[in-house]
Design brief:
The chain is an alpha/beta fold and about 325 residues long. It has two domains: about 160 residues, Hexapeptide repeat proteins (UDP N-Acetylglucosamine Acyltransferase, domain 1, 3 Solenoid); about 120 residues, Sandwich (Immunoglobulin-like). The chain contains six helices and 25 strands. Helix 1 packs across helix 2 and helix 2 packs across helix 3.
Length: about 325
């Protein structure tokens, strides 16, 4: 019995022999259509043809990626492209009719995006980070990060966070509709954030009553991520909700408050409700509770901008 590599090489030789293709072209045809078990090998075949592909990507067989102008396509890290999808980088329609020069445009799939089965990504489109393109959709314009687009032409229907919460509730209601799968393409890690890409809003959703000294209480917030980076409590650089206690003259009474991990990863253009635990100061008096985010071993968000915090006046009793 032939090994997988021997069978693959026989298929390559057959393609070259019957179609007069050079090895580079044969590699591209093989990457697109042969059901190779080695996903990284498929990616490497695309790279050899001139397509820019990052690390840890999954490209299913039957995916058609721009053969005429391969350098126009960039696929960043951790991207998943499902069977039958098409990624285009040129438009030759006017060339065929009027002998007009072929239009080329850079098509970019940003990190951690997901392209559904049979979707078509037209030339010049950028698919944003952590976005999902539904099966059979035709993408004609840039896709916002952290959003779900479906249809022809593709249009937004909800955020990825909203879909996650919906499915989490469905999982609790009927777990038989779901199977566990350890995907290596998931986003269970948190990199160091680039400060210039951060843009968050925190909104208080609670009334603080009966604040007793040295006691704990639960406060509800709404967190909104308007920046370009994912915010999560995953390692190696987790992000937590925390707080400072100030007096009425803005002097620090307690700098390091309790840490509360985020309920779910907060993707770009997403928002979530978050309960946090707060311990009141050990002396009665009037204070300001300043709630913000902190990335461990990096920085506090309110050090970047005072807008990345919410302040609440609190009177603490004996």
């Amino acid at each position: 019995m032939k090994t997988i590599s021997e069978a693959y090489q026989d298929a390559i030789n057959k393609i070259i022999g019957t179609n007069s293709l050079n090895p580079k072209q044969a590699n591209l045809i093989s990457a697109m259509w042969l059901p190779i078990d080695d996903v990284e090998l498929r990616c490497e075949l695309y790279r050899e043809y001139g397509i820019n592909i990052g690390k840890n990507c999954f490209i299913d067989y039957g995916v058609w990626i721009e053969p005429g102008a391969p350098s126009t396509v960039t696929i960043e890290n951790n991207v998943v492209i499902s069977h039958g999808a098409k990624i285009l980088g040129h438009d030759s329609s006017l060339n065929n009719i009027f002998d007009f020069p072929i239009k080329i445009a850079n098509t970019i799939l940003k990190e951690n995006c997901y392209i559904g089965t049979g979707a078509i990504i037209l030339p010049g489109v950028t698919v944003g980070k952590y976005s999902i393109i539904g099966a059979g959709s035709v993408v004609t314009k840039d896709i916002d990060p952290g959003m779900i687009y479906i249809g022809n032409p593709a249009s937004p229907i909800c955020t990825v966070g909203e879909l996650l919460l919906k499915n989490a509730n469905n999982l609790l209601a009927d777990s038989n509709k779901y199977i566990s799968y350890e995907s290596k393409y998931r986003i269970r890690h948190q990199d160091k954030l680039r400060k210039e890409n951060i843009n968050v809003k925190l909104r208080n959703k609670s009334q603080i009553e009966n604040a007793e000294k040295d006691k704990e209480s639960i406060i509800s917030l709404e967190l909104v991520n308007l920046g370009d980076e994912k915010i999560s409590s995953f390692n190696p650089y987790p992000i937590y909700v925390s707080y400072h206690w100030l007096d009425l003259n803005d002097n620090i009474i307690e700098f390091d408050g309790l840490r509360t991990p985020l309920n779910i990863p907060l993707l770009p253009n997403n928002k979530s409700l978050q309960d946090i635990t707060v311990r009141f100061p050990d002396e009665a008096g009037k204070y300001v509770l300043k709630i913000t985010l902190v990335q461990e071993e990096c920085f506090w968000f309110d050090e970047i901008s005072k807008n990345y915090a919410v302040e609440i006046d609190v009177e603490v009793f004996d």
